[in-house]
Amino acid sequence: MPWIFSILFKFLSKLPRFLREKIMPDMLIPPISNNPSKVQLARLGHVYFEHPDLDKFSAFAKDFGFVEAQKSPGKIYFRGYGKDPYVYVASQSKDSKPRFRGPAFVVASQAEFEKATKLPGALVRSLDDAPGKGKMITFNRPDGTFFHIIFDQEERAIDLEEPSATHEQQGPFNKPFDKPRRGRFQRYHQGPALVHKLGHFGYVVPDFDRELAWYTDNFNFVPSDILYHWDFSNMDVLTFMHLDLGEEYSDHHIMFMQRAEPHVKKTFLHHTSYEVADFDTQLIGHEWLAKKGWKSVWGVGRHVLGSQIFDYWADPSGFKIEHYADGDLVNKDTPTQRDVVGPFSVWGPEVPKDFGDKGEIA
Ligand SMILES: [Fe+2]
């Protein structure tokens, strides 16, 4: 009966802080750290989606900056220009409903892959039909989501020069006190923002504490930031997590989890996010998508936590999808920060009121 919780929540939030926080039970994220008994993930490789109209998604994907890596009836593998043979697998939905079928993380070694096969519910299969081949473990979570682990995948050879569909000649940047670019010009043309890699994704989760515990007990996810509710300082509502790689720096967040409001019954994907080169790429890519008639959700702007320049779009099935550039990096010496939920952008358009919702999934 979620409506009862909604009413209770509204009632409690009207009480003085000392009283409401006494009544509301603690919902705090416990201290989380990595240790060698956990499965050590190295990076995020790709995501799986099912779309009602694969051709339409394919048209969007090309305007978004993905490159087709392999196509078979009902399935397209899209890649970026990084080492992953693909970053996005789009399949034809058999019942015309769009679905997110989970992220796939690359494990650090064969030993880590073996360790993951021993976790309860691990289903192992081969990826022989996919570019780069390899092996995959899938976990079906009780909340209807999926989590995959991959190993033995052949990596792409990286181009020596960073490819671009928009930049002819760029940099270095001239600043007021330091102007290193002399006699050379910045030259760009219209085109899509080419994607480098899959950067992160996030869920909104009703069974927040149990799901978060599963990910952080079994894998090297560590919170970079924890945010608590503005009315209840004893209720953590969101965490941005990175992969702990020890001394090595990794992206500020690779996965985030948000505690669902009481009316949300089922876990949903908030968005997936893909790295592009820089600010010019973001703006030229934004214009390209707009000119092609796709739907902008929020951007271009600059996030606070993670610092990325962001730009969110709706794909033809209604999933939110983000271009990002210039994100923060953290390592084992970066402490977890805890703060109240605050503004999500430093600059940019006002955040849409329904940004936290599932959105119009076709
Ligand atoms: Fe994001």
From TrEMBL:
Pfam families: Glyoxalase. It comes from the Eukaryota. Keywords: Dioxygenase, Metal-binding, Oxidoreductase. Residues 197-326 form the VOC domain. GO terms for molecular function: dioxygenase activity; metal ion binding; methylmalonyl-CoA epimerase activity. GO terms for cellular component: mitochondrion. One of its GO terms (biological process) is L-methylmalonyl-CoA metabolic process. PANTHER family: METHYLMALONYL-COA EPIMERASE (PTHR43048), METHYLMALONYL-COA EPIMERASE, MITOCHONDRIAL (PTHR43048:SF3). This is Glyoxalase/Bleomycin resistance protein/Dihydroxybiphenyl dioxygenase. It comes from Lojkania enalia. The lineage of its organism: Eukaryota, Fungi, Dikarya, Ascomycota, Pezizomycotina.
